[in-house]
Design brief:
The protein is α+β, with helices and mostly antiparallel strands. It has a 4-stranded antiparallel beta sheet with strand order 1-2-3-4, with no helix packed on it. It is built from 7 helices and 6 strands; from the N terminus they run ββββααββααααα.
C-alpha cells in the first residue's frame, strides 16, 4: 500500500506575502505523510518539520497548535506585519521568510533593525523571536547579517556616549558619512569599511564622533 501525501494548505513561492490565517492558504505550510497503519492501529503521520510520527488522534491538536501560535503572533505584531511575510510551519512553530532589503542610506540599516522596512517585521523582532533560525542557515543572509550588525553596533556605541542619544548618532552618520562622496548610496561599502583591518574603520568613526557636533 503506497504512502499518502496530504498537503494541509496550499504552498506558495513568494517571499513577501502571506494570508491572514495560517490554515487557509499559507505558503510553505505543513506537509503530512501518512504511512500505512499496522493492523488494528491508527494511521501514523510524519510532521515534515520534525520527521516525528503522529497518530491520527494527534492531528487535531496539531492543528490547534497552528492556530494558537498564529494567534500569539497576531497579538504581538499585528495583522499588517504578518501579511508582509510568507510563513512556514517548522518544528511546531511558524517561521517567517525574510530577505534583507536593498537600502540606499546607511541609516536605513538601523530602520530595518528597529522598525522594519515596507511593513515587514524588523530584523530585531526576527532575532528576538526566532534567533538565527529565520535565516535558515543561508550563507547570503548570514553574510548580510554580519554586515548590518557592524552598523547597528556602531550606532549603539555612539548612542551610549556622554550626552549622546540615538537621534544624534543617526544625524552624525547622515552628515559625516551618508551624505559624503565616499559612502553616499554605498551602504555595503560603509559596512565593509567598518570591518576592514580588524575594525580600524569602526574605530575611525568613533574617533570622528569625538569632535561632533
Amino acid at each position: 500500500m503506497p504512502n499518502i501525501t496530504i498537503n494541509i494548505s496550499a504552498p506558495g513561492t513568494a517571499r513577501h506575502s502571506s494570508t491572514s490565517t495560517p490554515t487557509s492558504a499559507v505558503a510553505h505550510a505543513d506537509l503530512l505523510v501518512l504511512a500505512p497503519p499496522a493492523t488494528g492501529s491508527e494511521p501514523v503521520a510524519l510532521d515534515s518539520g520534525t520527521d516525528q510520527p503522529m497518530t491520527a488522534s494527534a492531528l487535531a491538536s496539531h492543528s490547534d497548535l497552528h492556530s494558537e501560535k498564529w494567534a500569539a503572533l497576531l497579538t504581538k505584531h499585528g495583522q499588517e506585519k504578518l501579511d508582509a511575510h510568507e510563513w512556514e510551519w517548522r518544528n511546531r512553530d511558524w517561521l517567517p521568510w525574510y530577505c534583507y532589503q536593498p537600502v540606499d542610506a546607511i541609516t536605513d540599516v538601523w530602520t530595518e533593525y528597529v522598525d522594519g522596512l515596507n511593513g515587514c517585521l524588523s530584523t530585531r523582532e526576527l532575532k528576538d523571536r526566532w534567533g538565527a533560525k529565520w535565516r535558515r542557515n543561508e550563507g547570503g543572509l548570514k553574510t548580510e547579517a554580519a554586515r548590518c550588525a557592524k552598523v547597528i553596533t556602531l550606532i549603539e556605541h555612539l548612542a551610549m556616549k556622554l550626552n549622546w542619544n540615538t537621534p544624534l548618532a543617526l544625524r552624525f552618520l547622515v552628515e559625516k558619512y551618508e551624505n559624503g562622496p565616499a559612502f553616499a548610496g554605498k551602504v555595503r561599502a560603509f559596512c565593509d569599511y567598518l570591518q576592514k583591518d580588524g575594525g580600524a574603520g569602526f574605530q575611525s568613526v568613533l574617533a570622528a564622533a569625538a569632535h561632533y557636533p
